[in-house]
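Hi everyone,

Forwarding the result from last night's run.
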Amino acid sequence: MSAKWFISKSKGKLVQLLFMVLCISVCQCLDAQENDTLKNSRYDRRIHRYRKHWEALIPTHTKIQFAGNMGLLSFGTGWDYGKRNQWETDIFLGFLPKYDSDRTKLTLTLKQNYIPWSLTIKDGPFAVEPLTCGMYLNTIFGNEFWTNEPDRYPKGYYGFSSKVRIHAFLGQRLTLNIAPRHRFNARAFTLFYELSTSDLYIISAFTNRYLRPRDYLSLSFGIKLQLL
């Protein structure tokens, strides 16, 4: 009886020991998994921030603009941002036919737009933006244009740059929001017009009273495709 009791007691202790070892192993595995989860979550958050920063550089729309002292036709892309996407920043590359000059010229424009209101028409697909406004900086490529007056002119003879112009504009837009089932490359299509003038034109208008609005105001038209 004593031998059987000893064997039975020894088996009980062995089972207890094995159970304790198993519990410790399970706890260690859980701790390791928890640590890996924490590491992965930090890594995932870091990658998410990294991707979010780079995704912000993806253009949200493209535009084509006719006239506006940016060239005969200008092709651009840009970004919408703000709580209501009321801000836009655009970059345009335009071309100006040679007309009476020796060659066709290229222009580059950096444009900032502000759209305070966007009003949906009777809960339909159309929306109107009754006011758009902003400024843009335009330059033209070519050796015959200058930022600073060449030495061949007396100092202060012109007093302005023939290469860089600052413009201001007002305009309106009409937007068609495309239904999801009909979307292909864009989710909205916008027609717009703008009435603009430049720094040089404003000075000319104040110093030459005989000028009419058509002499210092420029009318332009454009199309915007909302991609994102």
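The CA atoms of residues 48 and 54 lie 10 Å apart.

Cheers,
N.
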